[in-house]
Amino acid sequence: MKQIFLYASLAVMALAAAATGTAPEPCSGTVLLTGMSNFQVRQADSQTFVEFDFVGLHDICLADHSEVTGTVAGHLVQRTAANGDLNLSFNEILSYGGGTLGYRGEASLTGGNWRSQVMTVGAGTGSLAGIRGQGTFWFTGPTSLADVIYYVYVP
To answer: Tens of pLDDT along 130-141?
Structure first.
């Protein structure tokens, strides 16, 4: 199911790029979680589930090639196995300049191998309308992440 979602997302980005005649543009950014709430931890067999709401700051590149920092609010769920392997997923809404843009991310750590993907969800609103993107992310600290997202700007 995850592979189908990834391939469908790639196809949508390719169509958007073809429609605008522009190639996806890479944007290196950071995410800083500044607050967490509704923190829940539960055990199921040998697995630990952690879930919480978060707020923070997230960089985004705009069509004019400027990089700005928006505010985010979202929800994260993480499952950790007894051997340390984990899966996590999050949904967030980024707000900037009166507009909003949704993101969805997933990651796994299996035997020391980190895999992640993040992508925009929906068309965005206001100043963030028409922005599509996907990329990868990784942790740089307990509440900070870095990402590289390839954006396509659809007028």
So the answer is: 999 999 999 999
At residue 148, the pLDDT reads 98
The CATH number of residue 87's host domain is 2.40.350.10
**pTM for the structure as a whole:** 0.84
**Contact at 8 Å (CB) between 29 and 59?**
yes
- SS3 assignment, position 93: strand
Please work out, in degrees rounded to the nearest 5, the angle formed at the alpha carbon of residue 84 by the alpha carbons of 34 and 33: 5
16-52 pLDDT, tens digit each: 444 445 789 999 999 999 999 999 999 999 999 999 9
Phi first, then psi: give them for residue 117, nearest 5 degrees: -150, 145
Total number of domains in the chain? 1
The answer to whether the Cα torsion of 16, 17, 21, 24 is positive or negative is: positive
Residue 52: name the closest of 72, 74, 31 by CA: 74
Identify the three-state secondary structure at position 132.
Answer: strand
Separation between Cα atoms, residue 115 and residue 137, nearest integer Å: 9
Q: Which domain holds residue 110?
A: 2-153
